[in-house]
Amino acid sequence: MEKSILLASFLPLLLFLLPDCVLGDDPYRFFTWNVTYGDIWPMGVKQQGILINGQFPGPQIEAVTNDNLIINVFNSLPEPFLLSWNGVQQRRNSWQDGVYGTNCPIPPGGNFTYVMQVKDQIGSYFYFPSLAFHKAAGGFGGIRVLSRPLIPVPFPPPAADYTLLIGDWYKANHTDLRYMLDSGKDLPFPDGILINGRGQYGNTFTVEQGKTYRFRVSNVGLATSLNVRIQGHAMLLVEVEGSHTLQNTYSSFDLHLGQSCSFLVTADQPPMDYYIVVSSRFTSTVLSTTAVLHYSNSGAQPVGPPPGGPTIQIDWSLNQARSIRWNLTASGPRPNPQGSYHYGLVNTTRTIRLANSAPVINGKQRYAVNSVSFIPADTPLKVADFYNIPGVFSLGSMSDNPTYGAGYLQTSVMAANFRDYVEIIFENSEDTLQSWHIDGYSFWVVGMDGGQWTPASREGYNLRDAVARCTVQVYPKSWSAIYMPLDNVGMWNIRSENWARQYLGQQFYLRVYSPANSWRDENPIPRNALLCGRASGRRTRPL
Ligand SMILES: *[C@@H]1O[C@H](CO)[C@@H](O)[C@H](O)[C@H]1NC(C)=O
Ligand SMILES: *[C@@H]1O[C@H](CO)[C@@H](O)[C@H](O)[C@H]1NC(C)=O
Ligand SMILES: *[C@@H]1O[C@H](CO)[C@@H](O)[C@H](O)[C@H]1NC(C)=O
Ligand SMILES: *[C@@H]1O[C@H](CO)[C@@H](O)[C@H](O)[C@H]1NC(C)=O
Ligand SMILES: *[C@@H]1O[C@H](CO)[C@@H](O)[C@H](O)[C@H]1NC(C)=O
Questions:
Q1: Which residues form the signal peptide (predicted)?
Q2: Which atom of ligand 5 lies closest to the CA of 346?
């Protein structure tokens, strides 16, 4: 882990940065990150990648539930930059979310210190650069949040804990890809798949005969669902985005864009090397990349062809998704702890139906939600909201139901009340798979099925042991439904994890509002908040 330094030497910085209300007992972890361009060769050709402290992928964040993470990010790129934290809930603290709707970009040569807490969370997540299609150049890394020492985990400690950041990759750089999107074209088909920033045979994971290992896998790619499998070895699913699951065994597992999970693998086969395969799903040409599971006492290379996996089968994937259940008896921090065992018995207070579409607007390919294709404002929405700057966005610019009308451009923000309990149905009438992420929350995936959602679809909801997670897929011509308690005040990004769709407008913000206007409900603006756009020159707060 990067620079985890003694509290004392940072005390002055800390007193300056911390919200006044929390200076609790929870440990602090300090990171200093320098973001630069540098040469990488992930597919044998030299590319300009985004490095963090010289690394691609970036350093891994290892934390324990409730740790405070103080991450000072120096932007040494010649352009504005932001990092966001996929799955970190930022409780009461959308100020640290690192998307353009909440934070001013870190200017070239500038820095910003993120101050966040992994409150009541465990699990596997990742961070990524959120602006300007930077994600296509790297700048991402793994986040793991371990349980606190005395909290039982529903499986024995693994012999080692490996992270696999898997994702599709383009040889074209992010500026060229962005240019294609800006000029109204779609992205081409990806050139390959990377595991931890490397292509074919670029990774070896060493295991000892008889021992059990944890693999944390995140799909950090731009366009493609992926399947992962290990030759001759069963994969025991134990965690999905912070929920301990029923421990089902899989021979291969689908991970859609932005999703993370952990599985255990026992080295119980004859001592040799085995293939780890990651391949594209729902694509007519199947891309795949291979890594090696190496037994320390191995006497042989992997044998035979790498194991094949599912390719275009949708039902297979849907059935697998339905088999992912929450282990109700496993301990661990939970979203909304009071209500979590009974999430299915609480009446929802609002239903929101979100339909994705791909309209052409002003002659250019765009992507939309309920006909609105998001365009960024000149000032981050959270910042404009705080200073009451009018004209940046309007609440109600995003409807609760599909309109099926022509697409249009708008800075879309949906208003919602703190403590509402919402049902959200993602409706996909397109013939491609969608993946949706909600910042600031973990939600229960109560149902998914083919066809058009109707109120009668509720009869099939899993109201007992659905998994709580932060990213959900929606199969082609299908719907997925979630329940979400709005227990986190702030301005939260709801977005497609398909990065061309996100970039071209398939996202919006949910403004969860509490009239109490109390620091118990939401942290005050950070003293070090960067101010830009129409908020330039304002003051944050006095010391
Ligand atoms: C970041 O790295 C660049 C390139 O190595 C270096 O020139 C610069 O001084 C570094 N900045 C910080 C804040 O460490
Ligand atoms: C991307 O590649 C183009 C040439 O295709 C080049 O002009 C441009 O400078 C590159 N951008 C980056 C950030 O490497
Ligand atoms: C930038 O880094 C300096 C030095 O570490 C720190 O004092 C300052 O608070 C940081 N700036 C922001 C906006 O976080
Ligand atoms: C659920 O968690 C409990 C408690 O840790 C564990 O004993 C049990 O094996 C788990 N059940 C399943 C089906 O994974
Ligand atoms: C939910 O609504 C139903 C029907 O309106 C009502 O009978 C029930 O008591 C409500 N349940 C709770 C927990 O409020």
A1: 1-24
A2: 13
Per 3-state DSSP, the chain is made up of helix, strand and coil in percentages (nearest 5) of 10, 40, 50
CA 343–ligand 5 middle distance (angstroms): 13
Who has greater pLDDT, 205 or 12? 205
Give the whole-angstrom CA distance, residue 312 versus residue 156: 36
Measured CA to CA in angstroms, residue 221 lies from 128, 169, 170, 218, 280 at distances of 10, 7, 10, 9, 11
Strands 288-295 and 204-207, sheet pairing: parallel
The Cα–Cα gap between 147 and 238 comes to: 14
Residue range(s) of every CATH 2.60.40.420 domain in the chain: 2-146, 161-313, 341-523
Distance (angstroms) between ligand 4 centre and the Cα of 320 equals 19
Structure tokens at 467: 């998994």
> For 161-313, which CATH superfamily applies?
Cupredoxins -  blue copper proteins (2.60.40.420)
Ligand 3, atom 7: closest residue by C-alpha = 13
**Which residues make Cβ contacts (< 8 Å) with residue 439, sequence separation at least 6?**
84, 90, 94, 97, 99, 470, 492, 493, 494, 495
Q: Containing H/E element for 294? A: strand 288-295
Total residue length of the chain: 543
Q: Using alpha carbons, select from 102, 76, 15 the residue that is nearest to residue 392.
A: 102
DSSP summary character for residue 430? S
Q: For 452-480, write each residue's pLDDT tens digit.
A: 999 999 999 999 999 999 999 999 999 99
| Residue recorded with tokens 């731009």 | 222
Q: Selecting from 2.60.40.420, 1.20.1290.10, 3.40.605.10, 3.40.50.2300, what CATH number does the domain 2-146 have? A: 2.60.40.420
pLDDT attached to residue 7: 41
- Ligand 2 surroundings by CB, under 6 angstroms: 48, 173, 175-176
Entry pTM:
0.95
494 has pLDDT over 70? yes
**Can you tell me the distance from the alpha carbon of 487 to that of 441, in angstroms, rounded to the nearest whole number?**
8
Q: Which helix (H) or strand (E) holds 509?
A: strand 507-513
Query: Average pLDDT of 56-67?
Result: 98
pLDDT at res. 540: 85
Across 358-363, average pLDDT: 97
pLDDT at residue 4, rounded to an integer: 39
Q: From the CB of 327, is ligand 4 less than 6 Å away?
A: yes
